[in-house]
Amino acid sequence: MDNNDPETGETASHHLVAQAERQLFASGEALDAILAEIKAGNFGATKDLSGAISGLRKGLEAVFSERAKLEKFDGQHGHRSGELDLAAAGAEVRRRMARLRASFGAGGVSGGDE
After folding, report:
1. In this model, does residue 104 exceed pLDDT 50?
2. Domain for residue 94, yes or no?
3. C or N: which end of the chain has fewer Cβ atoms within 10 Å?
4. Cα–Cα distance between 17 and 64 in angstroms, integer?
5. How far apart are CA 112 and CA 114, in angstroms?
């Protein structure tokens, strides 16, 4: 299979995100149309309002879900956006340990601030 096939590989993940975004956009447009009808005095459109809101919510959930899957896929396959900052990570660990020591009165937590 080809890597550009929307059914396989990284391209498929990007394709699914784009599809979810199109679904969200379409749901938003449908909700806007219903709200415009209601503002124009056509209160019969209110029966479609809950369905449009539900569609918008599902579209939003789909976008978040597919983006999370894409980020997970990219992370597992080495497509990371930056380097690890080990000095910052060490400083964060030391800060957290200091807070733990302070909250427990340093009773039993070994080590000290560096």
Report:
1. yes
2. yes
3. N
4. 9
5. 6
